[in-house]
Amino acid sequence: MTFTFRPVDPLKDAQVLHSWVTHPKAAFWMMQDARLEDVERAYMEIAADEHHHALFGLRGGEPVFLMEKYDPAHRELVGLYEARPGDVGMHFLTPATDTPEHGFTRAVITAVMAHLFEDPAVERVVVEPDVRNTAVHALNAAVGFVPEREIDKPEKRALLSFCTREQFKKAVTA
């Protein structure tokens, strides 16, 4: 599967984002009760933030997943671990579908990681999924993430995990 990326346009893309983040499948995104305006506002804040970026993954020009990348020294994980130069934080969301495609989510996380590592300044990717999100833990492990420890964030108990460029290459070429 081949994907391309483009920045999210908070106003133009709000309807699509709203349908994705409020779906029960996206419970770990923590926007279940968000109104359209809430989603617009949240993504306008991201668009204005030099340390946080939202991108759509596209297939055939159509949005098929969402990824966010952030600087963990300035967002999400400040004070929760010792950020290193070259660290980048990541979230991704595949929308609910009535016609699941085998291997799609694995292809998405692989494309997200490859996209992040295209930047030569990125040394490792940091994630902090909810400890209860076992499906994403398995996906993370499949692309080379190694859990370090559980941490308490204001909104959740999270599994802090890391993946270096080398760990990613080894995992996806194995």
Automatic annotation (TrEMBL):
Please name the pathway.
Siderophore biosynthesis; mycobactin biosynthesis
Coiled-coil stretches are none
Classification via SUPFAM superfamilies: Acyl-CoA N-acyltransferases (Nat)
**A molecular function GO annotation:** acyltransferase activity
Q: Which residues form the Acyltransferase MbtK/IucB-like conserved domain?
A: 6-53
Q: Which UniProt keywords apply?
A: Acyltransferase, Transferase
In terms of InterPro entries, this protein maps to: Acyl_CoA_acyltransferase (IPR016181), Acyltransferase_MbtK/IucB-like (IPR019432)
Q: Which domain of life is it from?
A: Bacteria
Among Pfam families, the record links this protein to: Acetyltransf_8
- Task of the protein: Acyltransferase required for the direct transfer of medium- to long-chain fatty acyl moieties from a carrier protein (MbtL) on to the epsilon-amino group of lysine residue in the mycobactin core.
This chain belongs to the protein called: Lysine N-acyltransferase MbtK
- Species the sequence originates in: Streptomyces nogalater
